[in-house]
Amino acid sequence: MIRGNEVLAIIHSNAYDEVIPELTNMRTMGSVPFGGRYRLIDFTLSNLVNAGISKVGVITKSNYQSLMDHLGTGKPWDLSRKRSGMYLLPPFGFAETGTFDNRIESLKGNMHFISRSKEEYVLIADCNVVTNFSIDELMKFHEKSNADISVVCKRGKTPALSNLMTYEIGEDSRVNSIAVGVPSDDADYSLNIFFMKKALLERLINEAYAMHKTSIGMDVFQANVKNLRICAMRTDDFVVSIDSLATYYSANMMLLDSANRNSLFNKNRPVYTKVRDDMPALYAIDSSVTNSLVSDGCEIKGEVDRSVLGRSVKVEKGAVVKNCVIMQDCFIGAGAHIENVIFDKDVVIKPGKTLVGADDFPIYVGKRIVI
Amino acid sequence: MSQKAECIAMLLAGGQGSRLGILTKNIAKPAVPYGGKYRIIDFPLSNCVNSGIYTVGVLTQYQPLELNDYIGNGAAWDLDRASGGVHILSPYQQIKGSEWYKGTANAIYQNINFIDRYDPEYVCILSGDHIYKMDYSKMLAFHKEKNADCTIAMLEVPWEEASRFGLMLVDDDGSITAFEEKPAVPSSNKASMGVYIFSWKKLREYLIADEADPNSSNDFGKNLIPAMHEAGERLFAYHFDGYWKDVGTIDSLWEANLDLLRPSVDLDLSDNEWRIYSKSPASPPHFVSSTAKVENSMMAEGCCIDGEIDYSVLFADVVVEEGAKVHSSIIMPGTVIKKGAVVQYAIVAENAVIESDAVVGEEPENVANRDDWGVAVVGAGVTVGTGAKVAPKAMAGEDVPAAK
Known about the structure:
The complex is a heterodimer. Chain A is built from 10 helices and 28 strands. Chain A has helices at about 20-25, 40-50, 65-70, 105-110, 110-115, 135-145, 200-210, 215-220, 245-255, 260-265, and strands at about 5-10, 35, 40, 55-60, 85-90, 120-125, 130, 150-155, 165-170, 175-180, 185-195, 230-235, 240, 280-285, 290, 290-295, 300, 305, 310, 315, 320, 325, 330, 335-340, 340-345, 350, 355, 365. In chain A, helix 4 packs across helix 7 (about 200-210). By secondary structure, chain A is α/β, with parallel strands linked by helices. By secondary structure, chain B is of the alpha/beta class. Chain B contains 8 helices and 31 strands. Chain B has helices at about 40-50, 65-70, 105-110, 110-120, 135-145, 200-210, 220-230, 250-260, and strands at about 5-10, 35, 40, 55-60, 85-90, 95, 95-100, 120-125, 130, 150-155, 165-170, 175-180, 190-200, 235-240, 245, 285-290, 295, 295-300, 305, 310, 315, 320, 325-330, 335, 340-350, 355, 360, 375-380, 385, 390, 395. In chain B, the strands form 7 sheets. In chain B, strands 17, 18, 20, 21, 23, 25, 27, 28, 30 and 31 form a 10-stranded parallel beta sheet that branches. In chain B, a hairpin with a 5-residue loop joins strand 11 and strand 12 (about 175-180). The longest helix of chain B has 13 residues, at about 200-210. The radius of gyration of chain B is 22 Å and the shape is globular. At the A-B interface, helix 10, strand 14, strand 15, strand 16 and strand 19 of A face strand 16, strand 17, strand 18 and strand 21 of B. Strand 16 (about 290-295) of chain A pairs antiparallel with strand 16 of chain B.
């Protein structure tokens, strides 16, 4: 049986930054706040550590200050260690690495780190996929299906992500063919979680790079679908692959459903995040909160319905917050009315102001804006 | 030899807190949960780091498992340090035999070696029994300014309550002229908070003398400090005005929690300049459903609320089902309150289950004889059966069978 400590994990913290430019203007995909108290990378990291994986390289490209701030030494995930632990892999980290334009280049750029690691297996994942997924099950699947590469997929409408792979899965879970960048309403689309022997990854990436190939989907997976045994594992867990501001918003809203929450916040596989030591949330006399997720540090004197509130959000008396995603430290002034909006961190809406987005198109308000 | 520290703290955390009954059956008093996500010991520990004291000895004796586990390596309070940090000090075997901590002064006496390792000028003696935010560095500055041998933190209590405390008579310059221990007729309302700063050289002498006295009960308040006073040492009172509460009884623990819901109470836990640190559970934000009604309450992460909550403090991961009512109560982590149950004027400890239609506690107005009323308590892990009742003032330490 493969054990977590035989696995090196590589996380792409910047993958698909471009699909939510509003939120990644000042941060990486990995450090986008989500679900009240989390950042997207928390789900990926927690999945890894819950499977006993303790060596994690986090590939970064740009805007990674907020990510470094969030990750610190990796302590909240028990990844601050003498042996293994978390490694930030910024561009220009090694003499031969510069910035990169695709996954082949980014993996090649960090080949130093990958080759030097002693683990036998490697797992690759992104940050835009919100799920609580058992990597233990994936490792079992990999052995049972005798795969060269195991990939994880979800059945459904393909997210609007560039060069996304969809799999045609045959008997024994074997992937018979791979389409790249072909949208479909019902397909087994890739969650960009890949598991294989580290030596295989090294060979595939070195070859592709030497041939000046640029697409991991076409030039590595598709090109090898016949010579390698690629097997796909379907997950039935709650999964959202964030591909736009609209899915970011709806993914937050989906957490108001208890079945989704129970899947994402599985008690046996906790989701860890950086601790802020806020006090518990305070509800005032006459406050009214329904159908909402509320984080520590919030102080609610007004009305909140169908919303997700980050840490230390203040909702003053007479204010109404409806169908909103509010990130940490926002201030909703007395009598203000907001509906269908996303507030980035530290937004202030002054007393009495109104801001209403369409129910299928939320308004986004950037960090530290005062309305 | 460790790196020299100017001031270190010794936190007396060995007490049972017997007046908290079943709440301290398996845990020491400092480990009792408070304020939605804290434990009592978070307050003195956070005060220490916020005051710049980074070496803290925690003296444990009674039921230390949970407390030791909670403190761990001190990382939650930034006390995991290469030099100093938090140290758990339990009684240990010595060449002349082993003995328990006989009293507060004896507990420190038995750890003279620990203190000597840091060669401090001053030692701050704290207890793990109180809820308060205090800057010990200001008290230390006062101690130095007065060139004191011992400084005792003091606050003015209402005269009608003064007889419950150890009191001090204080001169205009702050020097202490006399002590009164819980007098029937108090002549002062200046009460000791159980926070002391000693000059270590002096304290060391008196600890050794106190230990040598077979008649001493080895207690700071009863023996050591009066001995210093008699010998004419420089004893001063440091005036503290702020929120301070001894949470030694069920009623005071209940009150101190609900104090957090009163804006007039001077205990701001959202103060960024004086954070109270604690070990956080990895729970998601709490969820309040469309059938829920939450007012005037404090709630930690991981809760899932379908029922009604009023004037209550809910710790992490509490579940309140639809139609259940919780008011004027403290609900500790992991407790489940099922459909139609009512919990009022109560403290429910961790991981208890209140089955549907059970009633815990009672409104004071509905009790004929006021002396029969009090806060009801349900112990950790206890199940209160369907339709069962837990009377006011009662302590349910074991499962309560369902009503027939």
